[in-house]
Amino acid sequence: MSLCAWSNAIVKLMNNATIDPTPTDWNGAVMQKRIAKRYAAERRFKAMGFIAVALSTLFLAFLLFTMLGQGLRGFQRTEVAVEFDFPALTSGATAASITGPNADTTLNSMDIPGIVELAVSQQYGDQGSELLTSAAAANVRQMLADNPQLVTAKQTLWLPAESRLDVAYKRKGEPASEKTVAALEQKDALRSGFNWTFLTGADATDPSAVGIWAAFKGSLMTMAITLLLAFPVGVFAALYLEEYAPKNKLTDMIEVSINNLAAVPSIIFGLLGLAVFLTMFGMPRSSALVGGLTLALMTMPVIVIAGRNAVKSVPPSIREAALGIGASPVQVVFHHVLPLALPGILTGTIIGMARALGETAPLLMIGMRAFIPSPPQGFTDAATALPVQIYLWSDEVNQGFVEKTSAAIIVLLIFLLGMNALAIYLRNRFETRW
Amino acid sequence: MTGTALLFLVLGLGLVAWIVGRARAATFVRAAKGGPRGQVNSLPSYHGWFVAVCAVVPAVLFMFIWQSISPALVTNMVLSAPAASDLPQDGFSRAAILSEARAIAQGLQTTAFQAQSEKLAPLYKDALSYYSWIGMAGTLVLLFAGGAFAFTRLKPDFRARNKVERLVMVGLLFASLIAIITTLGIFASLIFESYQFFSMVSPFEFLFGTDWNPKSVVTAGADNGYGAIPLFWGTIFIGAIIAMLVAIPLGLMSAIFLTQYASSNVRKWMKPILEILAGVPTVVYGYFAALTVAPTVRDFAVMLGVSNAASDNALAAGIVMGVMIIPLVSSMSDDSIAAVPNAMRDGSLAMGATKSETIKQVLLPAALPGVVGGVLLAVSRAIGETMIVVMAAGYTANLTANPFDTITTVTVQIVALLTGDQDFGSPHTLAAFALGLALFVTTFFLNYVALRVVKRYREAYE
Amino acid sequence: MAETTANPKISTRNVNVYYGEKKAIDNVSIDVDMDNVTAFIGPSGCGKSTFLRSLNRMNDTIVGARVEGNILLDGQDIYASSMDVVQLRARVGMVFQKPNPFPKSIYDNVAYGPRIHGLAAGKAELDQIVESALTRAGLWGEVKDRLGDSGTALSGGQQQRLCIARAIAVDPEVILMDEPCSALDPIATARIEELIHDLRGKYAIIIVTHNMQQAARVSQRTAFFHLGNLIEFGETSEIFTNPREDRTKDYITGRYG
Description:
The structure holds three protein chains of three kinds.
Chain A: H1 3-14, H2 29-74, E1 76-85, H3 86-89, H4 103-109, H5 112-124, H6 136-146, E2 154-160, H7 163-170, H8 175-186, E3 190-194, H9 196-200, H10 213-244, H11 249-261, H12 266-280, H13 288-312, H14 316-324, H15 329-357, H16 361-365, H17 386-394, H18 400-430
Antiparallel strand pairs in A: 1-2, 1-3
Helix pairs in contact in A: 2-18, 5-6, 7-8, 10-13, 10-15, 10-17, 12-13, 13-15, 14-15, 15-18, 17-18
Chain B: H1 3-34, H2 44-80, H3 91-105, H4 115-153, H5 160-200, H6 203-208, H7 229-261, H8 264-279, H9 282-304, H10 314-339, H11 342-350, H12 355-384, H13 387-392, H14 410-417, H15 427-460
Helix pairs in contact in B: 1-2, 1-4, 2-4, 2-5, 3-4, 5-15, 7-10, 7-12, 8-10, 9-10, 10-12, 11-12, 12-15, 14-15
Chain C: E1 10-19, E2 22-32, E3 37-41, H1 48-54, E4 65-73, E5 76-77, H2 85-91, E6 92-95, H3 106-117, H4 123-136, H5 140-143, H6 156-169, E7 174-178, H7 186-199, E8 204-208, H8 212-218, E9 221-226, E10 229-235, H9 236-241, H10 246-252
Parallel strand pairs in C: 3-8, 3-9, 6-7, 7-8
Antiparallel strand pairs in C: 1-2, 1-4, 4-5, 9-10
């Protein structure tokens, strides 16, 4: 403490409460220095706030770029040129024989995997068939079914490469695969193509043959059940609690339950699904039905809470006006309050559904982690969901799965961000200020 | 006929009932116009709804009840047949044969792996069709009976609207009760399974034991490796310590920056970005943590000279979980700070306080209860979070405070215990429920306190 | 029609205040000195509070607010870049319409300003400042035994005097009071008015009020605002007994307001 401040202090001490103190010397060096210090603290504090926001943003950007960087490759596949001398290989199948109603039977009888293996080994030697993914034969079959004319002549078909080769072509792979890639590139026998299989296929053991459609369909079916159950129940509960519920113990219990359910860890819902739906009711394991039921219980409180806020924001004057012309309480709610609250309810529902779509843990509990090699056909079939598929692939050791995992994440994020954007749009578009 | 088709038939007949009821009421209206008795009490469509509801609701209820009890009746019928007498007594192979026979009978499977299932399949087929016919007949009888009963009640002065509205109210109340039923369902199933678990393993070992290495066959009185202390510690270490060390400063400072310093333009863009952070699914965070953050943290630890740094270290999982929680802390802090009356801020600024002095000495102390409530909610979110720790943290129970070491949590172990061949009733499965109970009670308590604190705080400034 | 004083503490020249596009104050020039209490009166929405808030730059906290013209404190332009807003507000204290004690103890409320500005060298001196400020605000006798209680636990009138004590504690030169009694009962109002009497001469005091009797009771000079314009400014006795402008007369006699 400097002399100046001390003398100031002593003067002040000598004054008693009723005598004026000396005026503060705002322009003195001590005070100026102190103020400069306070401003420095102010700038530091503001910078800390900025850094906090920047760090959060950077983390998000880093996450998205990592996923994009790895995932975009997942939408590509490496293709190997394979020459098929179809007339020789198929011992003279005609275009007519693989068109029309009998096409399937003929194609089945053609032993296409054998044909592919023969064609590759003729061109690339005995190890040739190891160049192609396990789904290559199915690809050839599809090509023939789409264009029967192919079978009448010698063709060069581009077939998806096997996973290690795929990795080596896109970036650094194992030395052996790198060597193969170099050899094939010299022959101009490698190229990149869009990986349609990834969008239309199902899980497989070979990363170059996997697709997300089965998991995505499972997600869609699960979401359909969730929406069908959670939306009406959530809206009805919200209407009851806001409009009709008397103030009593039961209502309090309902409120506590809903607030608590909204914050219960999702894995607990999985345990409930396992204990009640699977074990007690004996519903089919791994099915979209049970997944949807479980997620519906989790989503319902979110819809109730959003719905209550939306219903609450409808001004009482509208209710009074309707009651005043002789509408019954039920008519007031269903004719006036509900339509006005609907945009808010929908926003909450979309956000709740987005959360359910990204949810993984409860689905693991009820067995939706099974290996699903073909899309589920019904609500009781064994199914998996997109986030669970991501989790399963992330556990795979094979390098080829890294980009597939990221690519699946991109698809999932596109849907989630789309749903959230829709919710924000709805909120801004229909938000009415009364 | 499948259940779905029957349901559609019932709904279709319900539509018919609605049309019939409405048409009947329309004749009243026409009659009333000429007659002396004045108006019909309710609109025709309410009469229609009354008939339709009376027809459909009991029928559908019966359908669902029948769906849930008929499998047991079918099995009973098959078992009571003489052909079933030579089934093995052993429960497991017996169940396997029965389920295979059922699958064949339903056409889900074409060939049998067990000879006995082949033999039982026709029996199953008969039993299934027998009970499904009963179910269908019962449903339709109820539907027509309900519809007919309602139709006879229709009269010009019948108060159809009041009846329908009362039914609507019952429906609304029932929808609200589902929340209570779910909560009770969670509680009951957790308690029930945990009770079974604690009859095998002593609660004392579970709550105070430090050795987590669960054995699948337990012996009373011995150490069975069900000491959950390392799991509780791991959960607290990752969720309540590391994650909060990331989330509280970043979330709070973000909220302060966005509400107090940022221009409205910056705020308009930055708030949705923080919301996106909250919308990213946890499985994505988990993958990112395992793939990118964990190796970086390990390399960093090795650089620092920590030799035993694990690739599934606690720090990576905790950091990523903290980032996931940032939006929650930020929005709760935002709300709390916004709830402090502006007069408070003006009072401080008018004294010549700088913005940061005002925030640190007036706004934050005033908003503290709300912020604390938000942090409690965040802790509850973090300790219940599953996927990040499943993917990035370890599976080995480890009682350590070294953030570079591998540590497991309650949720990781629940997933681990329920993975693989599970026989419901094995100590492994039941232990998962005991862990679930511990998690549920803890989060319930945290949420309850947090909501109370926040509510009390809101009321203080209203 | 600038009313000038020989030795003004604050003088404003051709001040305009805008909220976004809207002009809230139009060309106001006024002088305020240490010896007199100045009252701003006028119907609600006339801009008197807006003008008051521009005297210690509290309008800076409102997005879109903009001040034109010169406002001088001891001859220094307070909107000049060399003027530090933190110092300015310490020199020009403010008391608000609704009492707004911080949710802290009574002691900490009063000590807040001296602490942030570093006016006390130690605990003893801070105690001294707090006691002196509370004494001047006429609150010391009522609270000296419970300085640790929360400031929000006091009654409305006591809270407002606490806010005055809080403003006094940083040793300001000017005190702005924005309708300080509008949330108080008549007895509490009387105490505050007495207090204003006592403080006169030690600080330049400006009080905004919509209560004409109050203006007549506490002030020596009065400015009448209407729709953002300064209509009349002069000795309080003059304004109330013999207004020069018809609009002033109409307002004072209760034609509108």
